[in-house]
Specification:
Layout lengths: L1 H25 L4 H22 L9 H21 L4 H7 L2 H14 L5 H16 L14 H27 L1 H16 L7 H6 L2 H25 L3 H8 L3 H12 L9 H19 L2
Length: 284
Amino acid sequence: MVTLFAWIASVMYGVEAITGKLTSKHSIQNPWLFNFFWAFFILLFTVPIAIGNGVGVPTQWIDVVLASLCYALASTFYVLALYKVDVSIIGSLYNFRTVITVILGVLFLGEVLTIQQYLFICAIVVAGMFISVDERFSMRSFFTKGIGIAILGILFSALMAVFIKGAVAATGYWNATLWIEVLGQIWLLPTIFLFRKDIVSSTPKQYLVTAGTAVAGVIGTLAAVKAYAVDVSISSAIISLPFSLVIAILFSVFAPELLEKHTSKVYAIRAISAAVMFIAALNL
């Protein structure tokens, strides 16, 4: 059952990434405005579902608070990366989350890796460096500010998954899910100063497309929390599947002006790199 929820989360996150990129490119220019209201609509849509499932107040807060802080940071860096990096790159980069999760297990849980696991980690890292290639075919394309921001988002996403597992075990699924989002929204309140002027000029259409993006995010988050509560490593690998890469390639063929456009050779390299990363992640 855990894999079913992980697959649902993976597909929904792919859809969310595409709609998020479309919004950042064509609708909302300020990433801080988009980030705040994206998280707000996710919370808004989660509240009635949680209430309907008897949500209460957690009795233990440590993992909930830590997960919420990581949630706010992960979403912020993810949105900032959306404004700087191709969506076909971001989705594939999230295979690094499995590597980070395994490393965290070694550092904090005393887990011991085999030589084979080290080789898989190396394969993910090397393939990940090719995932960002463009028409120049230069490795410098990986060492950019946008990629760095995306990796920070992946780091906090991996930490969030670990704390979510502890939060669900300590206080229950719905308590963990709702309060992580509530506290996450509170952590984002200081960012209002970065977009307060843009609120005046924002339109209902902008909020509508943000709400639409949030719907996929809500489904993905609810499924991900359910999956992480059972198994972090397998769930992280499945959720890291780059569905957004597949959708981005289709857009490049049928509507290149909407999302991104690269040569077939570039997409072939990105797809092969993503496949190597995914296969290696599954075997970690």
